[in-house]
Request: fold
Amino acid sequence: MKVDGGEVVKFLQDTLDALFNIMMENSDSDTFDTLVFDALVFIIGLIADRKFQHFNPVLETYIRKHFSATLAYTKLTKVLKNYVDHAEKLTDQLLKAMKALEYIFKFIVRSRVLFNQLYENKGESDFMESVRNLFTSFSIMMNSDAESTSMVKGAALKYVPTIVNDVKLVFDPKELSKLFSEFILKVPPGRLVKQKLYCMIDIVHSDLFTQHDCREILLPLMTDQLKFHLEQHEELEACCQLLSNILEVLYRSDVGPTQWHIQIIMEKLLRTVNRTVISLGRDSPLIGSFVASMTATLRQMDDYHYSHLINTFGKMRTDVVDFLMETFIMFKDLIGKNVYPTDWVIMNMMQNKVFLRAINQYAAVLNKKFLDQTNFELQLWNNYFHLAVAFLTQESLQLENFSSDKRAKIFQKYQDMRRQIGFEIRDMWYNLGPHKIKFIPEMVGPILEMTLVPEIELRKATIPIFFDMMQCEFHFTRSFQRFENEIITKLDHEVEGGRGDEQYKILFQKILLEHCRKHKYLAKSGENFVSLVVRLLERLLDYRTIMHDESKENRMSCTVNVLNFYKEIEREEMYIRYLYKLCDLHKECDNYTEAAYTLLLHAKLLKWSEEACAAHLTQRDGYQASTQGQLKDQLYQEIINYFDKGKMWEEAIILGKELAEQYENEMFDFEQLSALLRKQAQFYENIVKVIRPKPDYFAVGYYGLGFPSFLRNKMFIYRGKEYERREDFEARLLTQFPNAEKMKTTTAPSDELRLSSGQYIQCFTVKPILELPPKFQNKPVCEQIVSFYTINEVIKFQYSRPIRKGEKDPDNEFANMWIERTTYVTAYKLPGILRWFEVISVSAEEISPLENAMETMQLTNEKINNMVQRHLNDPNLPINPLSMLLNGIVDPAVMGGFANYEKAFFTEKYIQEHPEDQEKIDKLKDLIAWQIPYLAEGVRIHGEKVTEALRPFHERLEACFKQLKEKVEKQYGVKSLPPMSDERRGTRPRSMVRSFTMPSSQRPLSVASVTSLSSDNSPSRPGSDGFALEPLLPKKQHFKSQDKLDRDEPEKDRKEKKKEKRNSKHQEIFDKELKATDIPMQPTEAVILSETISPLRPQRPKSQVINVLGDKRLSVSPGPAVPQTTSTLPPPITPRVKLTFSMLSSSNLELNGTGYGETPPPLPIKSSMGDYGNLMENPELASPTTPPPPPLHQRHLPPPLPSKTPPPPPPKATRKQTSIDSGIVQ
Reply:
């Protein structure tokens, strides 16, 4: 073997001929046999080397065409057997021989074939025996325990299968199969497992395994080996590969009959493979292969196999149950967590097809063996139903999710398997008979999930199961409460998860109503149930539709709709679940007040007790509470924190008191109590010292069928955000509904518009009506305390617009101008769990011109008194607002006084035509007379505080007031205010009030202009707080009703020009008066006294300047309304004596939308000119010097009017304007 390999292969044929010549020439002697054998092994080894691999065809050709040693097989076999017999000693030589075994046997077989050709099978028995002896030697070697032969044994397992295809040409294949079986069986247990399995894999790949009779010998051996190693979890990869290869051969059509062989695999391996699949994790790289093997096994099983499989368990009923349980659980797990990627469509569909057939086969077993009363297996049936539903609802079968082409191809090849299994489930359910009650309510959820699959025929077939469940439960319990509760709970989860649609709702309603109405006892209750589910479905479908909507407001609305429904039907668990969904939405929007009210609904469900918390009460991980009392404590702490962030300190105090009671008298937790009381003290201080921004309220109507059902053709009252103007609010609405059209009228829409397919939004500002808590009535209360209730805890809102009755009076158009006041009532008080609520009732009333005048005069008097009161409370207040207020009233050159009232109502003609108004006219005169003492006190204070620079202005003010006083006292009598002590005067300077806002001053107000601050002040209508009206001026535009508010831009431009012209004239009059007195005008004073239309800073919206208090006003009388007599008049006010007043049930504490005289909150940073565009129409806020409001004290004013007050007086003819903004008629 010392010759160079290249030289050998170069002369390969010659070399081989020489070797075999040596062997044949010494046929009677074995002297050279071993040497020739070793040389042959060396040559075969050379060719096996990578370097000489290309000589392999040369060797093959030599054996097939040139080899001619007919007796070589005996010598080669003999030498090989000798090596095997002495494996322990000749390990190296044997190992080399094993590697060359394939070609050695090619020489042996070719030699035997040539010999047979020459001698016609002579020596057949000797040859057969020699082969048997050789395999016996192999088997003996495999069975030995010698460690030195381990490598040789492994080589034998690797290379022996390579001889199969050649040996079977000259040896009986069946006997060869037996020899191989013995060879495999001799491998020691636990050793060379992997090599043994791969040896069997090679045998399967050989021609031997394709022969039916050989398979019958080899297959039992292989299945036994597989079963053993699978159960031991040994070499799972090799086991799976062997099984896959066996199944692949058996699936071929050219390998003869396979039914019995499939049966062997089924009997021995199916359950073992199932358990292996169950035991493997989803992250195992082998799981897909084992599932494929299991699927292939099931695929090749026919009806006979399934029947035989069950029969193999004999009479051991528990074994059948265990097998079916394992199979159902495994199938369900594989369906729920598919081991193949979703884009392996063919593989997944093939698996589904096989599983479907298996499920149906096993269902037949259930019907046959486990349905009668004695053998019924509840859990087995339950597992079947859950498996079948899981199969039907799996993602890979939802054809509607695929493209049309893909869907068509799948349907053509596999049909819609959902329908097949669905019909089977229906039949299985009806087969249960009296056992159905055992599956209620547990099976309600799975059946519901099945019916929600969007396949109409499947739905029609399976929805009736619900009625069968209702009927079944009713038969046993005389109700179907458990079924109803379960379907409501499950329906919520299913719809939220994306299942269900409008078609399902219609089909559900139609099918169940048809069945219920035919039933004698379920007709009514069944119909109520169907109606309940349909209503729930509507809300849940709406909720799901907007769940991912950008508009959090819509999401909040739908959430509230759902939680209110659950509250209505007393489903506490679901109710709380949606409460927290709503709370989370509010926190995302920084709606802390609404978040607090939402959590409070949960807290109200709890008791201050040691009762254990049910699981559904603690749905948030953040709450660590074992009792209801502990959970309620934690909720209250969080709610108080939210109320604090929302500046709702009054509400926080109420909860704090309840919590303090528990700490003090029940828990005795004084440390917590002290901390809580300190926090409450801070809340009290905040109430009186911190000025809170006051939001506007807006009425919004959504008309047209284009809106979602929860908005469609409904009106809502919205609570605006801080500093939010109507224009900004409208822009926000239209952003949510970009296709919506803004309505230009405030009248109710027509039926045609409501039923149209479009979207129409109506939006205008409304005024909240104060409902003062009883504890504050008839008591002196600080304005800061009461102002909270002007915009909080309100449920009624008003909107006013002018209407004309009768003929137009060119001299005094005000005489026949009426006010239409509409009152809206919401479903709940605002603020609440939402920033808006639906309007549930609307009412309207008309205010006569005379009543409006009475309201206006009373309001004017209160405004003067409030201003005086503030200056008495805080001497440091600037005088400028008082200057403008007094000048606007006493100077007839500004607004013309109340002459319009006299022209309209005090004439003989009017009194003769309206004798029923005599009492109201007297009261109006009385109110005019009462204005004088209030003005007198204001002028007195003005004189004390006026600067030298404004002394001429004050002197003119006094002169004008003197003329006015003489006229009024002459015509309407003398009134005086009583002297009051200082005992109730507040000692805290108003300058200590902390404000989050920037101050602004007010424009000069005349008697007429003050009417703009309220549209209603009639104590005879408690809570009648409507939209504020500006002076109703005798300009043509003035008579246009509010439903003509929105005009095109050219008309708006004309209005602006007229307004500028009017104000410029007003400015000239004011300036002339100042110049006439030679007042040195400093820049700041000029700004203060000027009525310029341009604000010095961005002003608050006009909707925040109007009165939002309604009739709950500061009364003009210390007691009830009484007829005017001199004996009831209060005494005059003495100088320097502070005016006081009492809070009556009809008291009104503020005259504009920001709280009378309060420093308005600061505006947010201006981002564009559009932010303040509408402020140009509001000249009432022009100076940054208005201080915070004073506390309220008792005052004595004239008696309140028991009837509606008259409208404001018309202005002079030179002052003609109608300015409309935010739905407010001016």
In short: The first strand starts at residue 690 and ends at 691. Residues 981-1226 have pLDDT under 50 and may be disordered. Residues 918-945 form the longest helix (28 residues).
